[in-house]
Amino acid sequence: MIRSGLLLAGAGLAALALAGSGSAQGSATLAAQMDAGRTAYAANCAACHGDDLAGGQFAGTLTGPVFLSTWGELPAGELLEYISTSMPPGGGGRLSDETYQALTALILVENGVDPELTLASATLPEPPTIEEQNALGIGGISTFYPFPEWEEPVDRFADYTPVTADMLDAPAPENWMAWRRGHEGQGFSPLTQITPANVSDLSVAWAQALPVGPTMAEPLVRDGVMYVHAYGEEVFAFDAATGRQLWRYRRQMPEGTLMQGKKTIALWDDMLILATSDLHMLALDARTGRPVWDVAIPDAENTRSNGGPLVADGVVMIGLATQRPGGGLIAAFDAQTGEHLWNFDTVAKSGTLGGDTWNEVPDAERQGGSVWTSGSYDAETGLALWGVAQTYDTGPVRDRVPGGNNDGLFTNSTLAFEPRTGELVWYFQHMPNDQYDLDWVFERVIADIEVGGEERHVVITGGKDGLFDTLDVRTGEYLDTADMGFQTYIVDIDPETGRKTADLALLPGRDRDAVFMCPHAGGGRNWSPTAFAKDSAKLFVNARDTCMEMRPTEQGFLSSGVDIYYSAPPDSDGNFGILQGIDMETGEVAWEHRRRAPYNAGILATGSGLLFTGAMDREFLAYDQSSGEQVWRSGLTGVPNASPITYAVDGKQYVAVVTGMGNPLAFGLPDFTPELPIPEVNSSSVYVFALDE
User: All domains of the chain, ordered by start, with CATH?
Assistant: First the structure.
């Protein structure tokens, strides 16, 4: 697959693209292919790009300055390669070689290429100059006086090398290579330039506006380039030191697509890989933003893509969320080509592992098992670790049938896969038969800690209820549980198996009285990821101190027949935001910080002992890891919606955060803090802070 964009020689690329396509077509003139090109265009392309190639409702122009600003001066072979592997969207390669060549010939001639040339010899015209685009005769640049010499901007892609597995498993200190920085999901950076002693000197180094809308994606930074997945399926590459835009990708979405924010994007080889709201997986050239491959996710009807991809062992994995009958899924693709490899149903079906745990509910009626957080990858064992959510269809599984099993696998579970084959190596269900909408679908943190006096290689994850289980990565063996201290419904945890027992007096339903319990189904602990510092073995978590009343009703938010209402805890002090440092070797809460406005962003931990996070009052905040003391704050124009990151360029450390209100936490507690209204005007931006010079 040819993906090299501007970095390969034109003639060689054209010859390679045309290899194997037939010498007759390769040597035919563009003029000889025009009639076939127009026929193929009308049948396959005009509905999106317009009858005259000038752009339509669903796709942009294929002619003129805008098109040539991307494709100008490139060999025909590169355009042919892209069209034949990526078009039509989701069906790349569906047409014949001759048809793709004819379409390429049409585009070339419509952009002024000599029709007597061949595909093997043709090159797209140069992009028009400013003077040539200045049709009105104003605003052009005079050459009466020469411009002074000026330093050229740094070429951040000049020394680009492919991203490897080792880079993702153990990122260089200056980089933030994957969601939560690396495959282990720790949200920790070893950088130490910004410290508790000098953090008060932080100020804005640069900022860039993004398309307005829910913007939940954690940026990635690799060798001085920041990648941001913005609302509306736009992707930006910025110079991470200055904010200068390097490229921008804008995807044309089918009419009526429900736009979804994503938590992450992924780097692999020379590609940036993302999931899109029209349920495709898409790879862009990381240096140019040009599409490399674009494939539809199979069997994804009536699902949502909120989490984002994990790339490990050359495999792209994506989880999907849904309330459809049949449940959610995790899908996998070859990272190099986009070839679909496997799907895994997160709601077990009859005759398969876990299929007998659904209280005799027919397969077609089983629901739940959404996956709306990306996974982690353990290079030591070669396992990809994914979390699965609960079911809203609680009624059919609430009361166990005689002799049956109503655990409902694989809801509220950790799943450990072999990425290339999709083999499920082990699973662990953290909370069976969840009747409270208290998901365990969040990040999986891989670490080495001491458990029971023994060094163990573990995975740590928690649910909305503020319980955090520690498991052995290799086997899924249960080791321990830590409790943030606000849940009131679990009355027992088996010390050997980790199985949790809920208070039967709090079992909700239309046939019961109202139930009051903590936390609320919206968290407690929810959307925002944790951070882990391996030197102290502390896990840093933010949460919301809320409870819920579950009122019986005939229909209900949950199908057992209950609606859910927010409540403050009985002993509330009016501070609903909780930040804790938990010692994962002892299971004890080392410290707790409380504030009025709930937190909305994830947590970043640094090697200097700092924590960064953000809240609904548009505050970006820093804390001391050892004590939880707040040491810095900055106001933002929008609500920080994603997780902060830190990185370094040319020896200077930066801290970045993205705003763009709209994750599930952002709409949770408006009546709890009436003096802190949600902004009526949403704004989306990336803010980058650094120490004053």
Answer: 5-133 (1.10.760.10), 189-691 (2.140.10.10)
